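Example record

The entry below shows one chain as it appears in the dataset: sequence first, then structure tokens.
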Amino acid sequence: MLIIFLGVLSQWIAWRLQLPAIVLMSIAGLLVGPIFEVIHPAESFGELFNPFISLAVAIILFEGSLNLNFKEIRNFSKPILRIVTLGAFIAWIAGSLAAHYIAGLSFGVAFVIGGLFIVTGPTVILPMLRQAKLKSRPAAILKWEGIVVDPFGALLALFAFQFVLFAIGDETAAAFGLFFLASLFAVALGAGAGWLMGMMFEKGQVPEFLKAPMVFGVVLLVFVVSDIVMHETGLLAVTAMGMIMANMNIASINDMRHFKENISVLLISSIFVMLTASLSLEVLIGIFNWQVISFVLAMLFIVRPLSIWLSTIGTDLTIQEKTLVGWIAPRGIVALTVSGYFAGVLLEAGFADAELLTALTFALVFSTVIVHGFTIGWVGKKLGLATADDPGVIIIGASRFATKLGKVLADLEKSVLIIDSSWGRLQEAHQMGLKTYAGEILSEHTDYEVDLTPYETMVVATGTDSYNALVVNNFVPEMGRANLYQTAIQEGDPGDFHSSLSGRTLFGEEWNIHKLETKAEAGYTMRKTQLSEQFTYEDFKTKWSNDTIPLFVQYAQGKIEFFAENNKLEPKAGDIIVSFTASSPESERTQERLESKRSKNGTQTKE
């Protein structure tokens, strides 16, 4: 109970304070574990401790690989391929040399642990990317590297271990053939299971309520079967399974992805607390060794940058992107768990210096998690690779009102993107200099054509209520319901739409998009009113006439918040209220004529 509670609490505090969640989870584990000795997870779980960690890592890695759609990297696949192949090889050799000459490990142990230390992994990189909000390209590179290299790091360490045993005469050449056959079997098993599951889903052979649980069970089965054939190949199998399913265009893939993501967040939260709480004071003290500290510094400032800069020569990565990717390489759960396994087998093989592996691994993991966790956002901003500090607004539907709304937001220096399926409707916004995109927001193609990371808020304002609800429902997992707004229901009873299918209602139930459009056509304009000590919000409400629609508030610090149903705003002096109002008596007369015309047309239609 305490492990799960501390993990989730750490995630929540990190979200509230905009801090790296991994760091807080690790600190929480250290506090309740070796420092205050409240819990001892390794002792409490006993023989189940390592299997639970391994199965959890398999689920997390599969969930991450479900996001590896090749369409995402079609424009920059070359640097990613270089990084996960040549870059990983350079990191292995350089890291092994550092472990031998700096940390003082023997060549055999150094080359085993050097292979393992090339991993970054989704358990650490994905939470960091979620917090840092990098631009899509560097974020995709770090994500792909973390997920793809994770299983290869474990396999590389296993290959190095087999080679070391062969060199000292404890293993035959046939073991190498078995190693490669087992790796091929893992890929085939994972890919086959992924393809079979995908085909069953597409042919309707699995009911909706069973899809996520069935995938969950098959992932564990594939992992365990592969690991039984050869230790550490299970990670490769689940990665292959996830990548196959991610590229099969399965209709229900998003539902499974959200389910797995929820499970992964819970598992990551628990595992980091468990692992750090299970450390001993001797391991913590062992970290403060000049050889260990020197090795960590070498990995941070020499090995990682060297592997990225050399492997990406001749690619189209910019200097800024190489610098960021060359700096960010946090190690995580796989490094911690697998190093424990290799420490044991190396000690059994007679390598006494393998005792240092646990302290060395934890020092590297904890150092990289803290240093990279706290600096990824700052470095990204300094290099111009992070999204704006002030998140923008996406507007769905290019009506005249939506265009006016976009223009006033842009005038207030907000990043605005208007999306509509019609080029014609976007013409006015385009002429005003607003950023536009002609396409379907729900299309998978749009996901890869448009970078949505700079935008935190979405306003859905098309003329179809059901479509608005569909768009909102689609983006709830990514943006959160609090940041999704839609115009009022215009046809039928608003109560017919369940609250879970809609966003926050803009400007109250009275103002649907057709009424707002009528006023826009009548010449209504956006008016900015800055409050002061002399002219307060109460004064503004007193002058608030029937032809004035308050739209949003820009607070003095720059943040905006829309007027919406059940959203009680309290603007203060220095804040700006933007309203939609008649600019002149002529506008009011035009408005009356338009409403009269619409009323007559509606009567004729009913008749």
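Notes for this example: DSSP finds 24 helices and ten strands in the chain. Confidence is low (pLDDT under 50) at residues 603-607.
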